[in-house]
Fold Endonuclease-3 related protein.
Amino acid sequence: MARNYQLIYDKLLNYYGPQNWWPADTPFEMMIGSILVQNTGWRNVEKALEKVRPFLSPKRMEKLTTEELAQLIRSSGFFNIKSKRIKAFLEWYKSYNYDIDAVKKTDKHQLRNELLSINGIGRETADVMLLYAFDKPVFVVDAYARRIFYRLGFDMPKSYDTFRKQVEEVVPQDLGLFNEFHAVLVEHAKVHCKSVPICEGCPLFDVCDRRLDSND
């Protein structure tokens, strides 16, 4: 039986409603948040963002030393590493004169390659930036997506990009769709498809194989 990614999206969106992601006041805050959230929970990121908020513009943040920035984002964990990653990201962003509209005009594939060349920016971080800051339709592959689709009965490729392209090839290239798809998958993983799933009332129960073994 062919698996239908569109069906999954429709069911989740109908159940949870639009999530209006990413949770940030500005695209720059979104991008900094996407680095801070690496290997930690969002509550820790929120604490770090509050500390660093007076400096949440590229020109203000670039004036901070790496050490000063690290102390401000301490609650996000791995703060020394993340501080260096943010500085590397700022160096790249400065090549566009911190002009987000100029970045948006760049071809999606070229832009993705540029982001991946920045120290500490991996595929998932690059893709959330592409999607939520630079308005490029892309499917974000994260641990939640893998957990949910595995349990549903999908046999996803181990390769990040192969899985990403597999989804992108069969759903409309619509920015709003990809924006909400990632968001409702995250919400579903938090509400129903947890490490120990809550299957009662699950909007995907009727299409789920309920595989609960090696991927959990």
User: Anything to note?
Assistant: The mean pLDDT is 95.
